[in-house]
Amino acid sequence: MSIFQRPHYKSEVTQFIEHLKKERPYLDQQQQQGRALLWDKDVNPRIWREYRAAEVPPKPYPYQPESVQESSAEPS
After folding, report:
1. Cβ(46)–Cβ(53) under 8 Å?
2. What is the pTM of this model?
3. What is the per-residue DSSP string for 7-49?
4. In the chain, how many domains are there?
5. Which whole-number Å values give the CA distances from 11 to 2, 17, 20, 38, 61, in the listed order?
6. Domain that holds residue 15
7. Which residue in 11, 13, 21, 52 has a CA-CA distance of 20 to 30 Å to 69?
8. CA 47 – CA 4 distance, rounded (Å)
9. How far apart (Å, rounded) are the C-alpha atoms in residues 49 and 29?
10. Annotated region Disordered: where (predicted)?
């Protein structure tokens, strides 16, 4: 046994999740269905390239007012 291993220790969160899965064995299947509904989608590479090409680059410092950015860009 490793000197760093805590024998038979389970956190409260782990105990809660194990208890929940015992009470509701269908939970994993529902979670996978929900993920498939929102996230597991095929991506069209052409549309993705068009989306990336249309992005506007962010401002270097978003909290600086427009008037200050324009005046600081001009040489003194």
Report:
1. no
2. 0.44
3. TT---HHHHHHHHHHHH-TTHHHHHHHHHHHHT-----HHHHH
4. 1
5. 19, 10, 14, 31, 43
6. 11-50
7. 52
8. 50
9. 34
10. 57-76
70 three-class SS: helix
Instruction: Please report, as a single letter, which amino acid is at residue 1.
Output: M
Nearest-angstrom CA–CA distance, 69 and 61 = 9
Residue 6 lies in a domain: no
Q: Amino acid identity, residue 73?
A: A
Q: Report residue 38: phi and psi, to 5°.
A: -105, -35
Summarised one tens digit per residue, pLDDT across range 3-18 is 777 778 889 999 999 9
In a domain, 31, yes or no: yes
Tokens encoding 11: 């956190």
